[in-house]
Every structure is written in C-alpha cells, then in structure tokens.
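Newbie here. two chains, one complex. Structure please?
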Amino acid sequence: MPPFVTPLMLTLKVAFCATLVSSALGIVIARWMQCGQRWSSDWIDALLTLPMVLPPTVLGYYLIVIMGRRGVLGAWMQNHLGISLMFTWQGAVLAATVAALPLVLKSARAAFESVDEQFEQAARTLGASEWSIFLRISLPLAWRGILAGVMLAFARAMGEFGATLMVAGNLPGRTQTLSTAIYSAVQAGQDQQANLLVGIASAVCFLILFGTGRLLRTQHH
Amino acid sequence: MTRTNRNVYSPPFVAFILVLLLWCSGAHAEEIIVSAAASLGNAMQAVGDQFQTDHSDTRVIFNFAASGALLQQIAHGAPVDVFASANQAFMDRAAKQNLIRAQTRCNFARNTLVLAVPAGSATGIQDLGDLVSAPQLRISIGDPATVPAGRYARQALQRIDLWGILRDRLILATSVRQVLDYLRRDEIDAGLVYNTDVRIAGEAVRSIKTVATDDPIVYCIAVTAASNRPAGGQQFIDYLLSDTGSAVLATFGFERP
C-alpha cells in the first residue's frame, strides 16, 4: 500500500466526522439564536466564533487543559469511562470540530436570517408546527448558504493542524493526518514524500471544492 | 500664494533619520546564533549567560529543537553560526552536506538515557520488559527520524528485542522535551528521556532506571559553513569546552565526553 493511503483515509475520516458534528451543532445553534432576540445570543456567538480567530496552538492548549488526563473533563472521562481522547483519532475529530464550528455557525445564521419571514409566518397561520416550519421551509430556503458553510467547514477540518498535533499527536497509522504527515516529512528531510503528500492533499481539496461548487451551480435555475 | 506644504527635508526630520540610521547600524553587540539540541535547553542557556557576562560585546541567541529538525533548518539556509547535536549521526550528515566547518567539530558532553514515569504513576513499571505487559500502556519516545533521543531509545529497545512489539504502540514526539512534557502532564505512562531532562522536571517525573544503548550518547558541536561570524562561533565553542563551561554543564548533569 503506498504510504499516502493511510494518512489520506484518516484525514477523510476525521474531516467527514468533524463536518457532520459541527454542521449539526452549527445549524441547531444558529436556529436557536435566530428564534428571538436573546441578549445571550451575542456573547454565545462571540464565544463560539473564538476558535476561528484564536491561534491553533491556543486552541490546542485549551483542549489539552479540558480534555487531557488531568483536565477538567478529561479526568472525569478517564476515571468514570476509562477513555481518554488524547492521542486518538476521536481527539483529532474533536479538534477539527471545534475549529470548523464557527464557519458553519456564521454561514447558517446568515442563511436563516436571509429567509423571508413572510413564508414562515404564512406557514404558522396555516397551522404548521415550529419543527415542521424549520424542516420544510426555513432549511430548504437557507440550504445554499448552509451548504457553503459546510463546505468551508470540511476544508477547514481537512487542513486542521496545530490543535490536532497537540491533542491527537502525530502517530503514524493512528492519528497522522495528511497535514501532520507533511510536517513530519519536511522535518525529516524527506522531500519526495512531502511533495507526494502535498500533491494528494491539494488535489483532493480542489476536487471536493470544485465538485460541490458545480453542484451548487447546476441547482440554480 | 504662500507654500503651505512643509519642506520634507527640514533639519529636524533629517536629524531624526540620521539618528535612526546610526542607531540601527551602529555599535550594537555582535550576535551569535546557536542551534542546539532540545535537551541542552537549560544548560546551554546558563552557559550562554556566563559567556555573555565574560564577553560583554557578544550576544548569544539560542534556537532549541530536535537535532534533526535543526539540521533541516540549516540545510534550508537558516542563518545559524553554531550547531550542537545530541548525536554523531546528524552531525555526520551535516558534514556530508558541507553545512559545517569540519575542523571546528568536537565533542563536548555525554548523557545517559533513562526510563521515566510520571511521579504519581501506579502502573508499577520497573523495567523495559514491563512495557509490553499491558497493551493499553501509553509509552512515548522521540521520533527516531528527527530526534536523537528517539534513536537511542530505538537502539535500547532493539537490544532486548522489544522494538518489533512496541513500535506500533509508541507515541512519537517531536523532541525529547515533548516526551518530558507528556510525562509531566501525566498523559503517558512511561517515556525514554535523558537523565538530564528528568532533573529539570523535578518532582513531577521519576526516573526508574538507566537504559543501555549501543552508541554512547555524545554531544558534538561545530561552526556552520555559512556563518558570517566564525570567529565568534569558535569563541563560544572554546568557552563551552573550557573548565567554566564544563562546570556549568556538570551542574545540569552532563558528563565530560
């Protein structure tokens, strides 16, 4: 098996999982924020957008402090569930999710707010439940903006490096993603390996973005 | 109509520019940049401070990382004057790539590799052999590709035929100090670090026993080929080898080569 297959598969696995979780969370939170002008919306928005502006190493440090074996949550998990996320691919998913969440959140919030309220009001007068309105009116009308956010989240999750390195380590075959594999190859002076991995990473990202972009375009009547 | 724009070449402005140029180009101390193995962090800094006290016209700036990573930096043109490696192999590679002045190369310190655990650890590890007993044990060494301590650790495990069993389980760190950090934070159950590193960590890390390696752990140092200040670099190396320098290294646990 060529050496790039394992990091590639792992990167895709981590990126898909992280995108799934961050998208679900992002959409739900965005909807929740939109329903009613809560005073808390602003500071929750700022808090959840923080990972986007924090240096990756700061993010990684916070994750270690919270999820490490002696961390706030980590110690509890270690003692009661016997599991630790450090040095695992699930830890990598956590790091990528936290990094990608702001992208979905911002996009989803903007998308929901762009939906004409009149449609939702009309549905309410016709007796539809809030949940039904969300699923059958708001979400379909906002899906383009949300999808753009999800695409960005996927790209971000694929490229996550700093926090991933600190939380999941760089264990070949277990938590070594494309990004950290490239880093290791460069550090060890293996330029050929690095070139190969960089080529693969670039090609995959380009294909995904190009494909999704086309998908969005062809839907436009 | 009077001219409202001020003449940009007015005397105060020119004076300011001159002062700025003088300040930038003027008599500031000579700077030597030393890239040294991560394990030398604290000791080298102390030697550097002593050196600067004794040579007030020279400033020493340190750059610490795994020796392999430092070599890559130098190979890619990092403006470093002196390179100190924790093993001979990386210095040999530097020599082969003509990155160092071969006549300035010499050995300056010796170290030992130890098996260490977090201080409060209850895993009962007494020996390298115990590392294979429980598969869920988290064991870390430096990455043998770039970290000398990792290479020595691999040697130590190969000697007693444990490398094959353990290699897929190991958590590879980017430097020996990262292994130490994992130990300090109790993120791993055991690690192979230098004796000098355990001393730095104090109460948080406990050394179980010294581990035998095939190659003796000897640190070497040389002036880089691309250095603009070879005389200054040589001055630092001479100081390191002198009684003063050796005494400082000894307080951190480094032995004479």
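Moderator note: Residues 11-25 of chain B form the longest helix (15 residues). The beta strands of chain B are 30-37, 58-65, 82-85, 106-111, 113-118, 139-142, 171-173, 190-194, 205-211, 217-223. Thread marked as resolved.
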